[in-house]
Design brief:
Layout lengths: L3 E8 L7 H22 L4 H14 L19 E7 L4 E8 L5 H8 L6 E3 H10 L10 H8 L11 E6 L5 E7 L19 E3 L3 E7 L1 H6 L2 H10 L4 H12 L6 E7 L4 E5 L4 E6 L3 E3 L2
Helix pairs in contact: 1-2, 2-3, 7-8
The chain binds glycine.
């Protein structure tokens, strides 16, 4: 089977992102998807999806890991989840603080019976398993917080969907949340609405978590593909349903037949994919 991979870096914010930022995001996504595709050639879809998301978390252009948005009380709380399409195992962390790569904590939880942890307990688990202190705050996020640039909030997350040489699918998603949200708010990214995979399809979402949860978006698209729709039709039908409440979301996906598809409800999600060739958002 030809390996395939697609990643997203949330939405381009026309109100706060410059042309320079757009080019920087194009370059970063192109480099990360190329590196993750090389990795996928010798690793499983699950390992590659985790690896790609960790690279996205390490890039401060995106709202996940380093450079995450700051919440209304001045703290950064991050959420991430992974799902293996073959085993149907889902694991995640919700509102974890002070770690470098939330996606690696989610990966660590995969082998535990209690596979989704939140808040301080997620952090204690991380510390018990060797994840050291890391402050993900960057000066630009701090400035945005201080100026209360709320218009840039709500549209950032990173994600990856991969299909490996054995035909297995996986998805991983990570976020710093909406920015300026109430402490305790739960993102879609560590739920099956924002990240889902089985033997038929894998999906990672970005956008406004509340809209994505209302639509049960990732799980619904994967169910539709499982029941026989093409990935494109399943995504388009589900995005059409978002219009009922002007839902704000972007989706990347791959099906077991090798179909890659991405779609957004508003301009515009930033993404890159690699199979036979590299493709990057324009
Ligand atoms: N999709 C990220 C969030 O709403 O938290």
């Amino acid at each position: 089977m030809q390996e395939k991979i697609i990643i997203h870096g949330g939405f381009f914010s026309e109100s706060s992102d410059s042309e320079e930022v757009k080019v920087a995001k194009q370059n970063a996504l192109a480099n990360i998807v190329k590196e993750a595709f090389e990795f996928l050639k010798t690793h499983s879809a699950m390992d590659a999806a985790v690896y790609a998301v960790s690279l996205l978390e390490d890039c401060d252009l995106f709202n996940a890991g380093l450079g995450s948005q700051i919440q209304s009380d001045g703290k950064i709380r991050m959420s991430a989840s992974i799902m293996d399409g073959e085993s149907k195992k889902f694991s995640g962390v919700i509102n974890i603080e002070d770690v470098k790569n939330p996606v690696f904590v989610a990966e660590k939880l995969m082998s535990f019976e209690d596979s989704v942890l939140s808040g301080p307990e997620a952090l204690s688990f991380a510390r018990q398993h060797g994840f050291s202190y890391f402050n993900p705050e960057t000066s630009s996020r701090k400035q945005a917080y201080v100026k209360k640039l709320a218009e840039s909030a709500g549209v950032g997350t990173v994600g990856c969907v991969a299909l490996d040489r054995n035909g297995k699918l996986a998805a991983a998603t990570s976020t710093g949340g909406k920015g300026f949200e109430l402490p305790g708010r739960v993102s879609d990214s560590a739920t099956v609405a924002g990240n889902y995979a089985n033997d038929f399809a894998a999906i990672s979402c970005t956008g406004v978590g509340e809209d994505i949860v209302r639509a049960a978006l990732a799980a619904k698209i994967v169910t539709r593909v499982t029941d026989g729709l093409s990935l494109e039709d399943a995504c388009n039908k589900s995005m059409q349903e978002l219009k009922e409440f002007d839902g704000f979301a972007g989706v990347i996906g791959i099906s077991s037949t090798g179909e890659i598809f991405k779609v957004d409800s508003h301009p515009f999600m930033v993404w890159a994919s690699y199979s036979d060739t590299l493709e990057v958002f324009q």
